[in-house]
Amino acid sequence: MIEWQCSYLIKYSPLTGVWKHVAVTLSGTTAMMYVDGVEATRNATMMLKPSSLGMTDRNYLGKSQFDDPYLNGAVDELIIYNRALTAQEIRGLASPSSTANARPMGAD
Q1: Which residue of 12, 17, 47, 70 lies most exposed, with the fewest beta carbons within 10 A?
Q2: Measured between alpha carbons, how far is 41 from 24 in angstroms, rounded to an integer?
Q3: What's residue 60's pLDDT?
Q4: Is the pLDDT of residue 59 over 50?
Q5: Which Pfam families does the record associate with it (predicted)?
């Protein structure tokens, strides 16, 4: 589940044993989640953006700071951008022949 405070995007349980490309964008108050390049869900009333949290000391991948279960899987190629990618850019990144053509945060 992807969650930011009281703003829920989706509860999503992918198939086990297969790789999935998952992307989440946040533009204004609209968050969208894409699975394999296709929009899976959106929430137009996100109340909190990650930068609103300020400096944090509990930054995890595959784990929550709360008593939620751990991710039973693997994470590969985590990229954080300083803007919301377009649907076209996400489709390109999810493509099997992708070589991450959108510029990540801090790229010159």
Answers
A1: 17
A2: 10
A3: 81
A4: yes
A5: Laminin_G_3 (PF13385)
